[in-house]
Amino acid sequence: MGRNDRGVPVPTVKRLPLYLTVLQKLQAEQGVWVSATTIARRLGLTPIQVRKDMAYTDIVGLPKKGYPIEELIRQIRIFLGWNRCREAFLVGVGALGTALLGYDGFADKGLTILAGFDSNEEKVGRHIHGKEIFSVSRFHELVQRCSVSLGVLTVPPHAAQEIADIMVDSGIRGIWNFSSLKLNVPQNVIVQDEDISAGLAVLSIGLSQ
Amino acid sequence: MGRNDRGVPVPTVKRLPLYLTVLQKLQAEQGVWVSATTIARRLGLTPIQVRKDMAYTDIVGLPKKGYPIEELIRQIRIFLGWNRCREAFLVGVGALGTALLGYDGFADKGLTILAGFDSNEEKVGRHIHGKEIFSVSRFHELVQRCSVSLGVLTVPPHAAQEIADIMVDSGIRGIWNFSSLKLNVPQNVIVQDEDISAGLAVLSIGLSQ
DNA sequence: TAGATTGTTAATCGATTAACAATC
DNA sequence: TAGATTGTTAATCGATTAACAATC
Predict the structure, then answer these.
(1) What is d(CA A1, CA A17) in angstroms, rounded to the nearest whole number?
(2) What are the chain A neighbours of B176 within 8 Å (beta carbons)?
(3) Chain B CB within 8 Å of residue A200 CB
(4) pLDDT digit string (tens) for A154-171?
């Protein structure tokens, strides 16, 4: 499993959102301090792993006390860049695209999907969850105008590469790819593949034992 | 990263669906045989890794020729249990639940979501993507009657544990958990967590370099 | 002070990659 | 036969876990 430029292992990065969820709940439930053991128990991890992960976010705990919850939440959010606002366009207003346009959990993670795009002209001009749907032909123009750097790709596999090319040509720097197709993009564009069939595979194998 | 009882590494299991996608396309494009190198190039993997993964599915290739595509597809599907039909109930007919009820990619993976459940009585009795929505209070009864073993959990985090308990009590053996809450379940119940905030974290870190 | 908890350094474990023999 | 490709065994790499010193 790869590492990114900050030298933080990808598995650690993927656990950080879990920590945030647990910490926010612990903050409401109890007090100011939390130990690695408590966090670990809630997530089914080992305390050692939690301490190792925390070390990456540059937060320091206090022997005997643990970590200051509020500070920890703040640090993790800064580390992930979730304290800043990032704007995105979504292409492909099908079932999944519609769900993502309406998902209210992104606000907390610094992500705002400004608008949707679709090649089906019947959808163009409509508003879904309060967000306007534009024609794909206007993607380039609107990316430039709004300085958007992130594209959410929720089109069917057969259209995915074509739309990815449009995203790249328009200056998009990161693509959140829900299309279950492996994309060809220049090295300077970051792609995060999201594919639930991987999860279904693990579940299928588990159930068939 | 853990291993399952068949001794196949989880990362390998997660790659199998990717191989299926590529193989189906290769089958349409060209011929009968495919080499590990060709598969690898399409997915950005190394040929060695592809061969290693293939070995787990008990398929054998032929030196000089490669693997027989059709046979490979068949074997992988059998290995994943996707050749058989598995039936599921979905609880939580919000934006994401609705999208999953309408997703037509599951048929190919042996999964059929028979019906939806919701605690909001206004949704009960309606049909979404041709599937009836029942009250959660009838979950237990219908699981028994239809011998369903898989539950898809798409409720908000605050309701997730409660619904998971209902699923477990009803005899569900596997939970596909989209709630972004860590669930407490007995050891004999398998949980597969699906959480896009992990992916967003990786993307966020990548973009902030 | 004693005890609990952090943080770091070393050991282990497992997946990936490399090397190479086998073979069509 | 020669060359290409598989499959296996060994080496490497990186994440997790263990051990333990530091310290409030």
Answers:
(1) 18
(2) 199-200, 203
(3) yes
(4) 999 999 999 999 999 999
